[in-house]
């Protein structure tokens, strides 16, 4: 990689810098681990940790902040949901590489104090939304909560076409790209931590097949793009699907499984490559609307260190496999 680009990526919050050191530079563990440890004490990670409530939550709620008005302007279509409550805060800390030990006792406090806004269900028991359940599964295995029931929930709620849809409870019978990718991320986190079960491993591979059969970006019935959002890259990924988000997942799954990249991803990979700028960066497409604690990436139209990292890592994995 270009030295100027590497230096630019390294000039980042510890939450990103340690991943650049490990995955792009191949630095020895003692180097990137030392940077990773700083997530708890510096920058984004330290700021978000300081915002945790005494009861273990963030913003006083499981998925929405306590003061969210479900009938107010913040709930209007297009306003964007808040990203400040417990689930979103845990997602960020986990994805930034915070060591679970830093949050010792949080799993127990959430079990005692946090309940879903939907039907007042207990936090670690999950909800009916498969995206919410996927994040709860990933956060649970990270923090040591008992979430085995949620892992099996995904086996029982996979649709006939192979994936998942958060709107199943409203009667949907067709899988969603967004929901399927989020479910897969939850199952992969569970399998990485525990080895999974024969049933959860089968469900994960079935969900992967759903996306691969569609080239990660097209309708199986017509071959058309499933939507303009598939090539709209934004960090944080939140719940939104894109071919970059999907390719990043398949890289992680490939490394866990010890398998090469699936050739059905080729068009999606080239869609990622096509957005690389002449200077080697990728641009932020948008900021997902909604309340945040603080911004962690650039405004729309500017070069994004996060997106450049994810895209560079995906392409390096893909290109290395093709060259071998």
Task: Give the helices and strands, then pairings.
Elements: H1 3-10, H2 14-24, H3 29-37, H4 43-49, H5 86-95, H6 106-113, H7 130-143, H8 148-156, H9 177-194, H10 198-212, H11 243-257, H12 266-273, E1 282-283, E2 303-304, H13 305-323
Antiparallel strand pairs: 1-2
In short:
This protein has 324 residues and is mostly helical.
Distance between termini? 19 Å
Q: How would you write the strand order of the largest sheet?
A: 1-2
Order of helices and strands: HHHHHHHHHHHHEEH
Structural class: mainly alpha
What is the count of helical runs? 13
Evaluate the radius of gyration: 19 Å
Features:
mainly alpha, two-stranded antiparallel sheet, 13 helices, 2 strands
Please, could you describe this protein's structure?
- With 324 residues, the protein is mostly helical.
- The chain has helices spanning 3-10, 14-24, 29-37, 43-49, 86-95, 106-113, 130-143, 148-156, 177-194, 198-212, 243-257, 266-273, 305-323, and strands at 282-283, 303-304.
- A two-stranded antiparallel ribbon has the order 1-2.
- The model has no long low-confidence stretch (mean pLDDT 97).
